[in-house]
Amino acid sequence: MSFFFIYFFFSSSSSFSVPFFSPLFSQSKTEQRTTVFLNHFRDVAVALLIALRWLTQARWLRHLRKLGSTDVSSGESEQLRNGGAVLALFTDFSGFIITAASPVTSRERYSTMAALFSCCFDCGRASSGHVTLKEMPTVQLDTHHMGTDVVIVKSGRRICGTGGCIANAPLHQNKSYFEFKIQSTGVWGVGVATQKANLNQVPLGRDAHSLVLRQDGTVYHNNEEKNKLPANSLPQEGDILGVTYDHVELNLYLNGKNMNCPASGIRGTVFPVVYVDDSAILDCQFTDFYHPPPQGYQKILFEQQIF
């Protein structure tokens, strides 16, 4: 067994074909037959690896297409990313093995085979269009959708001045979670709003385009009080406000504790929203949360896009 391994190792690449071993491997017909057998075995193994590598590339392309689909859930999207990474790693590794296991005298033959497989793969890919995933931007406050007297600092995470601002990512996923930290008290509000909301009008919640918690603990939508925090649970400076939204209800969390204060009524595509006035300063937290999201909820995810 050791003899077969040593011979296969040294015969697999010309860089290891040392003349010292040549007499040893040509002493008998049995060893010559063994040499022929190992060469054929190596040829078949490399050919199968080339075919498997091509199939892996095709599988990877299907992963990219599905990951770019807008109807993929966030959990499935994460699984596809992990699977795609494994497939990509195997594709690169198998290419290295094919090159290393092929002797120089046979590499032209394997290169021709690989070119044929690659041609089939490229032709199939060309017929469906080149698929590339766009790099997802960071979720932050959108300076293109804010009040005229609003100031956004800290890389789109802190708001001050007067007026409101929505985030740059819509809440398309089923269950979203995000946080706000009250750095300085004053007049403020947090919640969700559509792009039709008047971000120069403070407080929000006066029309059908916003649903917000105000600094006095009331939750307003369409100029109606939808709910109210307990009297002993009004947010103070330094507190963390968590917000969940599932396309039906908005729920509020104070320092990680559920306030059992659901509110609903807003329709359409909504975005996280925050407004400030009277020296209030709030920080937005769309990732690296102070408190873990409730079960089933997660950070806001951009939709994957392909072009």
UniProtKB/TrEMBL annotation:
Domain B30.2/SPRY: 99-295
Entry superkingdom: Eukaryota
Xref: CDD domains: SPRYD7 (cd12880)
Pfam families: SPRY
InterPro entries: B30.2/SPRY, B30.2/SPRY_sf, ConA-like_dom_sf, SPRY_dom, SPRYD7
Membrane spanning stretches: none
Name the record gives this protein: SPRY domain-containing protein 7
